[in-house]
Design goal:
alpha/beta, 10 helices, globular, 4-stranded parallel beta sheet, Rossmann fold, about 45% helix
Amino acid sequence: MKSITKWTLLVLFISFGLNLSAQSVVATNGWTASFAQLAGADDVLILAPSDMKHPPEYEISLKEMQIVAQADYLVFAGYEAMMGRIRESLGDESQLKMIQITTVNSQQMIHESVMKIAEVLGTQSVAAENLKNLDDFFDLWRKDLSWHQEMLSSVIVHFHQNGPAGSLGIKPLMVFGPAPPTLGENAEVLKIKPALIIDNYHNPVADPFLEMDEEPAIVRWINFPGTEGTTTLMDVLEYNRKQLNQVLD
């Protein structure tokens, strides 16, 4: 597809003319949007559809490119396929403020990314209150897990779920993925004989590990909103908590 030129964008402004709010925030996908929401951003416009299993692969449309060009802020992570096209189309003269964050659902990284957004938006007080609620949630979850140390001492975790697992005090015997397991990794799992596997819903690769004689319990955590009605990062964490509780109870 041909690149969008600045002239094309100018024509789009004249033809369609979108009325965005005084401080309009656009996010590349539901994951970056969920961080922006925690930071205190209102009415975040999300580019990638929420029902996509792999939002980073989403290709931005011409009309969406116009929306980005008229926005005040763009929250992104850097792995999105659309970012090359956005940077090329906007050029160096754009007034759009780009806020790059790290989308890892560990307690520490959520704090860092949310406050990075809040400092740009000027919403630090709202972000601080939201992060306090997040901390309370993690504290309660850790307390609940303290009753299940026997199973949680024998866990292997998908690479993309190691962040939140670590925030819960889970020390995996092995971190696997995101690529399918090698023969060596399969052999290692046979030696470990984990009681629990935490896989990643968006690119699950742990199925070969279930072929052991004593099949371990398995949960598939999500990274971002969209699954089963989740719309916020807190929804994501609560969903993962419920999934884990089902195998612990």
